[in-house]
Write a structure and sequence with these properties.
The complex is a heterodimer of chains A (339) and B (517). In chain A, the strands form 6 sheets. In chain A, strands 4-5-6-7 form a 4-stranded mixed β-sheet. Chain A has a 4-stranded antiparallel β-sheet with strand order 8-23-22-21, with no helix packed on it. Chain A is mainly beta. Chain A contains 4 helices and 23 strands. Helices cover 11% and strands 42% of the residues of chain A. The relative contact order of chain A is 0.13. The N and C termini of chain A lie far apart (61 Å). In chain A, a hairpin with a 2-residue loop joins strand 10 and strand 11. Chain A folds into 2 domains: 223 residues, no CATH class; 98 residues, THUMP fold (2-Layer Sandwich), CATH 3.30.2300. Chain B is an alpha+beta fold. Chain B has 3 domains: 103 residues, 3-Layer(aba) Sandwich (D-Maltodextrin-Binding Protein, domain 2), CATH 3.40.190.10; 130 residues, Periplasmic binding protein-like II (D-Maltodextrin-Binding Protein, domain 2, 3-Layer(aba) Sandwich), CATH 3.40.190; 200 residues, Dipeptide-binding Protein, Domain 3 (Dipeptide-binding Protein, domain 3). Helix content of chain B is 28%, strand content 21%. Chain B is built from 14 helices and 25 strands. In chain B, the strands form 7 sheets. Chain B has a 7-stranded mixed β-sheet, with helices on both faces. In chain B, strand 8 and strand 9 form a beta hairpin. Classes of the chains: A mainly beta (339), B alpha+beta (517). At the A-B interface, strand 1, strand 5, strand 6, strand 7 and strand 14 of A face helix 1, strand 3, strand 4, helix 9 and helix 13 of B. Strand 1 of chain A pairs antiparallel with strand 4 of chain B.
Amino acid sequence: MRLLLSRPLVCSCSLLVWLLLAFFPCAAQSTSQESVSLDDALHQLADRISAIPNFHGPCRLQFLQDSNFAAETAKDWQELFRKDLESRHVSVTEDPAAPVLRIGVAETPTQVVLSASARVAEKDEVRLVTASRTSFRAANLPVAPVRLEKQLVYQSPERLLDASSLWNGSSLGLALLLDREGELEVLRIDSAGAIQQSVPLSAAGALLSRDPRAELSLQAEAVSVLLPGKSCQFTWAAPAETKCHVVKSSWRGITVLTPSCDPGGWKLQADGSDWTTLDLLQAVPENAMQRGSAAILSDFPGPILSINGEQNPSSALVVTRNLRTGNYEVYKITLACGN
Amino acid sequence: MRSTKSLWLAAISAAFVLLGPTTTRATKHPKYGGTLRVELSVASVSLDPRTWKPGSVAAADYEKLSALIYERLVTLDDYGRFQPALAIEWSHDASFRNWQFRLRPGVKFSDGSLLTPKEVTAALEPLLPSGLQIAANETGVQIHAAHPAPDLLEQLASGRYFIFRVEPDNSLLGTGAFVLAESAPPAPSDANPSVLRPAHLKFRAREDAWSGRPFVDAIDVTLGNPPLRQILNLQVGRADIIDIPPDLVRKARQENLRVWSSPPDTLLALRLDDAQSGTADPQFREALDLALDRDTMANVLLQRQAFPAVALLPQWLSGYAFLFGNPMNLDRAKSLQAALPANAAGGAEPIRLRVDAVGDLMKLLGERVAVNARQANISVQIVPRSGSSTSGNTTAAPSPIGLHLFAWHYSSLSPRVELQALAQHLHSESGAESESVEEPFNPEKLYAQERRLLDERQALPLLLLPEYVGIAPNVRNWSAEPSGTWRLADVWLEPAGSASSSPEAASDRSVAPGVHP
């Protein structure tokens, strides 16, 4: 019996990694080979429509969309679809008297459903094209605000708890603490975005908690993971020697950024208390008398789960969960001078 | 060498503690503790998935509470991705007929015993439909499907497919984040013995839950409280979560209560019953269908808290429901009725409509159907659930029923399975053979089958109802799975006047749960 791997095996073996060029000069992009775009699915639908017997148009297009991602780019894909149909010799018109070709894009819990319906020779012709929701490529990410620069540096469908930047003397990388199918693991990611090392912590007794607090700290080759009520240490050179012990957790304090043009620090603050709502990152001057005054704000696509300072005093790593895609994302936040 | 490394690790550990940060946090985090008080209208529950009937509205509540103590092999997240639950890996062959699931090791039932493949097989065997066979292997289970089952994960991630173990006393044990600690049936009130105290269930959080200890210590469920009392209890802080019937949602919102709604998960429809002569006539069925004013039912009777239903499956489940369109056409309904013979159904003899769905709102909806039918000169008479006419002689034999107003709760994430179950329900009630939607699984075949069911008008969809939940302001992290299961283990309670609550207590509570030294 030939077995085809389904999720989550595929997901866990091929984390979706987007390391942006600005952060890692030799960035690599990794996407699933099975992924399709809305455009691909619309091409398939146009093919199916052009094969309807005796249907050549001219027809008037009527679009119905019940899908977030399609709504974001409605004008683009509708125009593309119109051209696609015309290239297949189905003529399109704006004439209100022309027969209607209804095109629908909808999302179900697991699928994206594209539908076309037209009345041809006193008969309803319906064509449906479906694709798994997970196979659709993510849309473009929101643009970063002006002064608080925000760059996506990592994205994963697996639950990320914390991120820390790595510097080995010559290149940058990332260390990530994540929940991989119910097991805690620390990943070492190189500057090209490849997973260099994976250190499971469960063998040393660090088990998953519903409490999302977890912190990753790096000092040279040494790695420390702080969990509610527990602390674990290991070195990259000897991960098998991981040791965990009970501690009274003392969590890292507010991250303070110091841009090159301002000797005063800026505190990074977020709510992060509700996993179902969008979050706002605030950079507040450390000496501000009133909270929120002169704050620089940055929208995030979901709750902010952790904020961790970097070696560079003007930047930090922020872990969030994108509520639209469900992916966990790591952003590099830099407090830039001026506009 | 080993001791040197250990010393070095200890030194690193000490350094991290010494260099450790200050006490403030950049972000707020959930808090452990407290009891979540849930009130449901349903008077009793069955926590045995083997007893739930497909489409049953009551089973939706049973499923919510059962999800506290049992788990499924997989779950579906909000983004269309299946997530591991009791199964951590799964695979299938190219034909989608042979599936393998590897179980999460180390999962324990609430009595501390380990979950094994044998128990998963025993739990699922009586629940799986006849075309699916399950067998245990060393690390998990394999499911063989007689027909390709590309939607097996959708099936297993929803509905009654929980994993449990039946004890010798016929009680059921689960692996979920809660355990049933108390169950009290309705009992006479101490203060006034003539008044019944509602039934209570208490679920206690499991410290050793593999998915992490829930935030709340316990969930206290009160059953059978009338909706208005539930709303009052939510207002005065005696309840945290309540279910709100659609006709009271507007009132709840006007009183500034926090109301959450699900996608429409219950269908209200008319089933035509050949028992009363004349109802099988396609022309009569079409006339009745065209006379139904679903928009008014949704917007006026249900005060915009329901949606007109034009298909058997909702849009969110099929993705194509909008293709069907609203059939209302009163003029054509009248002309079709006029063309029927004088002794046809709804003419000389009224069509008897029985409201099978429970509740006053359903009776009102039945009356609305009768009004719409009358506008097309079709006479409809409401009969009580006993089967005799409201105005008829109760000692006479029950008259045959021509129309049933019924409610159907969608419980599967597979549109194919849901349509098949609904079609089977319609056919079994009418005594006819059901056509199954088997492979090759194809969305156009599914559409065609639904189209056929609608064209035959065995059922006339009326309305789609969402589930409405009233939520107290201090309840955080409220969400539900696409299957409708409430994620109550993730809910936490903001302590009253949280700024002044004891941070030490909160801190102490947050240390131990879910983490085992």
